[in-house]
Each structure stands twice: as structure tokens, then as C-alpha cells.
């Protein structure tokens, strides 16, 4: 007997077979109501990465359309088959199709998930007690980079830079992996000690979150058709993650203040894709 197997990564799902489109949604409902109704329907099929609802174009029939993006292609396919031509929450049936657009970004790997999305995905498949994190080390490495000064702003200021190594453990599977996070920003000396302390706290949190995300990026969830799950961790043999000292060992892209401001929202502004599979 052949058992279906799917690999779930802690990255933004970009594959076309993980996205479904819903249209022929009636007027008379608010966007907020439609969002909640669709979320209730489709989250029952599996973990959702994204759901968007928008009104039809002015030249089209009044109403709404929606996009739902799953982490699992099997869940997306099952949801499409089960809800196509069904009324769901309205008096007339909706149309549901799988996307067929080929995404060139697939060849370069998907984007990283946010810290919150990593936690939600792990909780969905493994439960709240199925994984844990530990901060191995968190250090101020400002003096180890460019002598502690930066010219990222118009006026010279003090560079604050923190590095973190976090450990991610899956006790039921005997799997452990680590990630690294670095965050930096420049402090204007004219704004005083309070501003410096506030930014220091934010940078420490961001470095920790980035390290946890880095650890999750190495994790593969092996989901079997019978409901069983296995956990694997991709290990980079060249990566150096010491237990007690990160100075000189962290080799990752710096995470700046503006990077985190841009990543503050959970709903990424993804392009709409209306190429769909009409064969279902």
C-alpha cells in the first residue's frame, strides 16, 4: 500500500498547487464577515499561510473574490475539491480553483516565515508541547564590528549590535538544531540614555527572534498520508555555532532597524495570481 508523503518547510509557501482562488462571492456581506467565514471553512482543511478578500473590479459583476494559501499542497487540493460549487456561507455556490501559475522564485527557495508564523505552524503540526526553544547565548557585539561606529545615518552615532544563538528542540523526535540572529541600529547621542536603552531592548528581542527563525528554517516536517509526522533537521557542516562565545563566529546578514520595521506586518503584500486550473 502506497502512503502519500509531503515535506513542509518553515518558509513562505510559493508553489502554485498550494494556492486556491474563490470567486462568485455575493454582495450583501462585509469583507470582514467574508474573511471570517472563509477562514472558518478553509482552516478546517489545514494550516493557512494567507487569506485575502477583495471586491471585484468596477467593470465586473458586483461581489468579491478571495485567495487562500496553504502550507500543504494536499490540503489545498482537498479543500478545492470539497468546496467547489458549494454554497459555503451564502445562498449560491462559489467557484474554487487551484492556481496554475509557475513561480520563478521556486528555483531560489521561498522567503523566511516570521517568528510568529513559525510558532503557529509548529503548534499546528506538533502541538504546543511538541517543541521548545532555548537561548544558547545573547551578546552585545557592537565593539566587534567597525570599532563600534557606523555612518548609516547623516550624523555619526553609536552602533548597537547584538548577536544571538538559539536552540530549537523537538523532544518526541530527538531532533535539535540551532540558528543565528544579528540585529543592529545606530543611536543618536543627542537623544539620550533612554533612547539607547529602548533600542537595546528591541535589538535584543529581534536578534533572538531572528535566531529562532534561523533554526526553524533548517527543519523539515515529513507529513504522511496516515497522519503521522516525522521531523528532520538540515545540518550545515561548515556552520560554526559555539556554546559560549559568538564573537567572530557569526557570519550572517545584519538585520537593521529598517528591516524590522518593514517586516512588522504579518500579512505580506503578495501579488495576486489569477491563473487557475479549470480542469477540476
Can you tell me about this structure?
- With 280 residues, the protein is α+β, with helices and mostly antiparallel strands.
- It has two domains: 13-100, 2-Layer Sandwich (Alpha-Beta Plaits); 115-262, Enolase-like, domain 1.
- Helix content is 24%, strand content 30%.
- It contains five helices and 13 strands.
- A five-stranded antiparallel beta sheet has the order 3-4-2-5-13, covered by helices on one side.
- 30% of the residues are buried.
- Residues 18-101 form the RRM domain.
- Homodimer.
- It is found in: Cytoplasm; Nucleus, Nucleolus.
State which percent range the strand residues make up.
Answer: 25-35%
Count of helical regions: 5
What's the SSE pattern?
A: EEHEEHEHEEEEHEEEHE
Give the spatial strand order of the biggest sheet: 3-4-2-5-13
Question: Helical proportion?
Answer: 10-25%
Q: Tell me the quaternary state.
A: single chain
What is the CATH class designation of the largest domain?
Alpha Beta
Largest sheet: 5 strands, antiparallel
Strands, total number: 13
Structural class: alpha+beta
Unreliable sequence segments: 147-155, 245-271
Distance between the termini: 26 Å
Q: How confident overall, as mean pLDDT?
A: 83
CATH topology group of the largest domain = Enolase-like, domain 1
- CATH architecture identity of the largest domain: 2-Layer Sandwich
GO molecular function, one term: RNA binding
Main location: cytoplasm
Protein name: RAD52 motif-containing protein 1
Organism: Astyanax mexicanus
Amino acid at each position: 500500500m502506497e502512503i502519500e508523503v509531503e515535506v513542509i518547510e518553515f518558509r513562505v509557501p510559493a508553489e502554485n498547487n498550494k494556492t486556491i482562488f474563490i470567486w462568485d462571492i455575493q454582495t450583501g456581506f462585509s469583507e470582514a464577515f467574508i474573511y471570517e467565514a472563509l477562514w472558518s471553512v478553509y482552516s478546517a482543511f489545514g494550516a493557512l499561510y494567507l487569506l485575502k478578500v477583495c471586491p471585484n473590479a468596477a467593470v465586473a459583476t458586483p461581489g468579491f473574490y478571495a485567495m487562500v494559501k496553504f502550507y500543504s499542497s494536499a490540503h489545498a487540493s482537498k479543500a478545492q475539491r470539497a468546496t467547489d460549487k458549494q454554497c459555503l456561507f451564502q445562498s449560491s455556490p462559489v467557484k474554487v480553483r487551484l492556481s496554475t501559475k509557475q513561480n520563478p522564485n521556486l528555483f531560489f527557495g521561498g522567503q523566511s516565515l516570521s517568528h510568529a508564523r513559525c510558532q503557529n505552524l509548529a503548534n499546528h503540526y506538533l502541538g504546543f508541547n511538541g517543541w521548545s526553544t532555548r537561548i544558547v547565548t545573547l551578546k552585545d557585539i557592537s565593539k566587534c564590528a567597525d570599532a563600534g561606529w557606523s555612518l548609516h545615518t547623516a550624523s555619526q552615532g553609536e552602533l548597537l549590535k547584538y548577536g544571538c544563538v538559539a536552540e530549537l528542540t523537538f523532544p518526541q523526535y530527538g531532533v535539535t538544531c540551532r540558528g543565528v540572529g544579528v540585529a543592529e541600529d545606530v543611536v543618536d547621542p543627542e537623544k539620550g540614555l533612554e533612547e539607547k536603552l529602548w533600542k537595546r531592548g528591541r535589538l535584543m528581542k529581534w536578534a533572538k527572534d531572528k535566531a529562532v527563525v534561523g533554526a526553524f528554517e533548517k527543519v523539515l516536517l515529513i507529513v504522511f498520508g496516515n497522519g503521522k509526522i516525522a521531523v528532520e533537521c538540515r545540518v550545515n557542516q561548515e556552520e560554526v555555532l559555539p556554546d559560549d562565545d559568538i564573537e567572530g563566529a557569526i557570519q550572517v546578514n545584519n538585520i537593521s532597524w529598517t528591516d524590522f520595521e518593514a517586516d512588522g506586518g504579518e500579512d505580506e503584500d503578495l501579488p495576486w495570481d489569477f491563473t487557475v486550473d479549470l480542469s477540476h
